Amino acid sequence: MIYRETGNFVTNYLKDRDIFSMTFDKVVVILGLLYLFLWVPTTSEYFLSAHVIPILAVGLATVGLNILTGLTGQLSLGTAGFMCVGAFGTYNLMLRVPDGLMSLPVALLLSGIAAGFVGVVFGLPAIRIKGFYLLVSTLAAQYFVWWFFNSYAWFLNYESSGVVAIAPKFYDYWGLGNLLGVDMQGYPARYLLALTICIGLSYFAKNLLRSNTGRNFMSVRDRDIAASVMGISVPRAKLLAFFISCFYCGVAGGIYSFLYIGNVDLMIYGVDRSFTILFMLIIGGLGSISGSWLGAIFVYEFPIIFTFIGDFIFQGAFNTAVVENVSNMVYGIFIIALLIREPGGFAALWGTTKQKLRMWPYPH
Amino acid sequence: MSKSLLKVNNIEVVYNHVILALRGVTLDVEEGKVVSLLGANGSGKTTTLKACSNLVHAERGAVTKGSIEYNGQDIAETDAYNLVKNGVVQVLEGRHCFSHLTVEENIMTGSFIRDDPKEAKKDLERVYDHFERIRIRRKSLAGFTSGGEQQMIAMGRALMSRPKLILLDEPSMGLAPQLVEEIFAIVKALNKEGVSFLIAEQNAMVALKYADEGYIIENGRVILKGKASDLLNRPDVKEMYLGVSEEGKTSFRDIKYYHRRKPSFS
Amino acid sequence: MGFDFVYLIEVVVGGLLSGVMYSLVAIGFVLIYKSSGIFNFAQGTMLLFASLTFVKMTENGIGFWTALFIASGIMVIVGVATEKFVMRPLANQDLLALFMATVGLATFQEGFAQFMWDSDVHGLQMNKFIDISLLDSNPIFISDYIPWLDLLIPRFDIFASLVAGTLIVVLAFFFQKTNTGMALRAVSDDHMAAMAVGIPLQKVWAIVWAVTGIIALVSGLLWAERVSVSFTLIEAVMKALPVILIGGLTSIPGAIIGGLVIGVGEKLGEIYLADLFGGQGIELWFAYFMALMFLVVRPQGMFGEKLIERV
Q: Residue C148 in 3-state DSSP?
């Protein structure tokens, strides 16, 4: 076997903390990044706009939720609400702040911070409330945010239809587009912006997992009384987790609205969106960043592929309602089957597979 | 030669399809005896007990090789609760009392499988006779009782099913030494009434003192077996598990850790 | 113009009665949670499925009682099947995984119900079938009895309250006083220990899920009478959540008290506070905010079991 996990001798602490310690892995990662940055933008617009970009957006939200639920154990169903804050925040910043000072990437990050603060406010009850009861706080956030943006039309610039199309000028990053001669509103450009943000934030999340802060989060998840006895401030850890998680969700919301849909629309940030992201998280595996991405890809693509296969086999013999219902049925069964087989999701399945491969040809 | 109540035949137990926990455990509990299973952390004691009570399935574990016989019958297809009906009950490691039920309700859950409420009430009194301490606490929530009391509640609960064999998992864990002696004295008393015991323990001294036979398990494999009194006097057991050697207290510097290749059955 | 006291009473009474409806859904939740520690998100879809099945049968000419009987049978089968295929393999798993399994179950049931029957809205009027004075569509005029109280109470709401009340009493008695009830509470505390002690998880859960199925049928029918059978029934679930959270996830009487609190609070909030917040539709989050306030004061709900942790 050429893939050896042994024989990697490190000579300093920095090297010891490498995420990918084997040369093989490093090469794969570099090739992967090259592929993502150089080759994918040249693929069809349809592929980018209908598959890649939305997955980047929801995947980032899943990573955010992972930090809150997977790492810190705080169950949350308010994800879409925080995404909504990010989307509306980005829109309003772009709209109202003079062009010279604001551009899309900055707006995304700032609105993420705003979402983070909203998250902290709704995370305050988490100091007292534990377990399933905590759902009430995040659901309150979800419904409140939705109602708030629905009621105060100022946020949508008094657009009567309730949906605002994003003007092309918003995509001009301080004239960068004109400088490079690239159409910033085009999908390749959008994709690259989303990709950069997602890779950057995923890297940050992965390191968060391995850091002291991440360990604090996990100890709060596992045994918060023991954590507080050890000197970890449990309220501080929980609120920090809410902040970081909602920051991610806010940025993801901005990406979703600006780089994918092209509209700022309240309807797409309902409770079902929160559930979808929770699905992605569970299917991917709690506590694993790569798992979150796998889960996001799977959950997003499943209905599409299923409908496609259905149409292919039955040549459109059934109407959309039937297909949707059957899709839901298969989807539900799949989730249950996956949870039975491996409650830890794809990430755990992958871990078990690796373990089996290590011992191959022995079973264990 | 008394009848064999529980026969574990060279079992192999795997968790989650990939984690090998037991790799060849054979033991034999005769009727009316107290058998101790000794071993360090992670050696496989709890897994052995859970395999005998068929609770191992609840933790995604499976007996992949070998067999377990209770009263001459293979238990592979028996549900955990049916085993309890047949007289095998496990007292879990860490007690696992039902924290939101009262002490009395906890003990009564043990009688759920029976259908003679009058006899059950009498057995409840007998449990309180054995464990006087918890009689006064009978109406408190079990979650608020102390470790020792919880151990008594768990054992009383097990007794309610009128078992022939009790699988005790680390009864001394987290208890004060005096309390440990008390618990084991009660075990001995119950044994005199005809209940057999298979006790998994880390506290070798106490476990061997109160047992008839002992097995030592290491890394998922039984490596030593014998009469408890013989084991207590073996120099290697003394050195490994009791910390005493021929020359007095051993220092780690002097230990020559060798791998026991063959199980030395006497 | 003084403070309209009668109006206030009318609002409060209206709130109490609508609160009872929430409680009916909440009871199903609490039952499952109390017996297994699982937060059954599929409760709403079970409501939908049960009532859809019933309505489809009555629309096709099957008599009320026959349809009720058959629907109950179907719900029992659904309950037992759920236990066998979903709960049993997942026993002893992390509670979050179990919760997600119920969400998956809900997705399945949603698709299945609409696949088997259809996605239309069906009206349901029970007084067409049963001839009880309580189901008469004429409301009771309180002013007939108390002259100065000019209130209207729909008879149906009283009927629903009676049904809910009976359910509560029966279930509360069951859990506190019977052996099986005690065994269920034990299972909810610790699956593994319950198995070790000899409680047959499967049999016990099969019963619980079957009973929950029937409760879903009963509450589904009562809700359908009010809002018709349609997809929106599932939204009833989202309203039931703050109810159980206030009352306590493990408390059956709590389900009804929580329901009343939410029902009244919602109505009061909508009428008196909506102007303050300058918008319509605050009841959506108002219920959750009320629950939040309660929980901050009592993190386990009014009557829920306190979290007992051994350090």
A: coil
The three-state secondary structure class of C135 is helix
Task: Answer whether residue C123 is part of any domain.
Answer: yes
Q: Is the dihedral of CA C247, C248, C249, C254 positive or negative?
A: negative
CA of A322: how far to CAs of A282, A316, A328, B80, B177, in Å? 27, 11, 10, 43, 68
List chain A domain ranges: 43-268
Q: So what's the ipTM on this one? A: 0.84
Architecture of the structural domain at B4-87+163-265: 3-Layer(aba) Sandwich (3.40)
Per-residue pLDDT of chain C (311 residues; tens, 9 = 90+): 346 777 787 788 888 878 888 888 888 888 888 888 788 888 888 888 888 888 888 777 777 788 888 888 988 898 888 888 888 888 777 777 888 888 888 888 888 887 877 666 666 666 555 555 555 666 767 666 666 666 777 777 777 788 888 887 888 888 888 888 888 888 888 888 999 998 988 888 888 888 888 888 888 888 777 776 666 666 767 778 888 888 888 888 888 888 888 888 888 877 777 666 665 667 778 888 888 888 888 877 777 777 776 66
Among A201, A173, A190, CA closest to A112: A201
- Put simply, whether C301 touches A (Cβ < 8 Å) is yes
Indicate yes or no: CB of C179 within 8 angstroms of CB of B108. yes
Q: How far is CA B165 from CA B85, B86, B172, C155, in A?
A: 11, 9, 19, 61
Q: How many domains does chain C have?
A: 1
Contacting partners of chain A (3+ CB pairs under 8 A): B, C
Contacts of B92 in chain C (CB under 8 A): 192-193, 196
Chain B residue with CA closest to A356: the answer is B18
CA distance B50 to B56: 5
In a domain, C260, yes or no: no
Nearest one of A142, A163, A118 to A270, comparing CA atoms: A142
State pTM to two decimals.
0.84
Both tokens of C74, joined, read: 């179907």
Chain centroid to Cα B23, Å, comes to 19
Subunits with 3+ Cβ pairs within 8 Å of C are A, B
How far away is chain C from the Cα of A103, in angstroms, using its nearest Cα? Answer: 32
User: What span, in angstroms and rounded, lies between the C-alpha atoms of A81 and A116?
Assistant: 12
How far is B35 from B44, CA to CA, in rounded Å? 16
Q: Where in chain B is the domain with CATH 3.40.50.300?
A: 4-87+163-265
Distance from CA of B161 to the nearest CA of C (A): 8
User: Is A324's CB within 8 Å of C111's CB?
Assistant: yes
Interface of C with B in 75-134 (CB under 8 A): 91-92
CA angle at A25 for the pair A20 and A26, rounded to the nearest 5°: 70
How far is residue B48's CA from residue C171's CA, in Å, rounded to a whole number?
Answer: 40
Collapse the DSSP code of B133 into the 3-class scheme (helix H, G, I; strand E, B; otherwise coil) and give the result. Answer: helix
CA distance B145 to B138: 10
Q: Starting at the edge strand that comes first in sequence, how are the strands of the sheet with B196-201 ordered?
A: B88-91, B165-169, B196-201, B34-38, B213-218, B221-227, B264-265
Tell me which residue of C157, C155, C152, C162 sits closest to C136, measured CA to CA.
Answer: C155
Chain C touched by A277 (CB under 8 Å):
no
Q: For residue A344, give both structure tokens.
A: 């830890």
User: How far is C150 from C172, CA to CA, in rounded Å?
Assistant: 35
Write out chain C residues lying below 8 Å of B110, CB-based. Answer: 197-198
Phi, psi of A153, rounded to the nearest 5 degrees: -65, -10
Specify burial of residue B36 (Cβ count, 10 A radius: 0-12, 13-18, 19+): buried
Q: How many CB pairs under 8 A join A and C?
A: 140
Minimum distance, in Å, between the CA of residue A55 and any CA atom of chain B: 31
What is the distance in angstroms between the Cα of C197 and the nearest Cα belonging to chain B? 5
Instruction: Phi first, then psi: give them for residue B26, nearest 5 degrees.
Output: -125, 120
